[in-house]
Design brief:
101 residues; mainly alpha; rod-shaped
Length: 101
């Protein structure tokens, strides 16, 4: 219904339609904002875990390579030891790329 000046009434032109919220189902909770730097802190922690895993894994491979060198075959053990050193160097490099705390 139009008022005297031609505008629609308080109910609006679509008064017979149901509200959109009842069609969409239950209301979704609002997104909780993360604290400042939260995502960056998580990314940094994941990078530190990766670097730690590389160092520990590399040390384990070096130990296995030294054990193989002393018991089975010096050439194979030496190659495995070098691979472990490379892994440890890469892990150390990743720690260095993280920068200061």
């Amino acid at each position: 219904m139009a008022d005297d000046d031609g505008r629609e009434g308080a109910r609006g032109a679509d008064a017979d339609e149901a509200p959109a919220s009842s069609e969409a189902g239950p209301a979704q909770p609002a997104a909780v904002p993360t604290p400042s730097g939260g995502a960056e802190r998580d990314k940094r922690a994941a990078a530190a875990r990766t670097a730690t895993h590389l160092l520990v894994g590399g040390a384990a491979v070096v130990a296995a390579g030294l054990a193989i060198t002393g018991t089975v075959d010096a050439t194979t053990g030496g190659a495995i030891t070098l691979a472990g050193w490379a892994g440890m160097l890469f892990g150390l490099h990743r720690f260095g790329r993280l920068g200061a705390a």
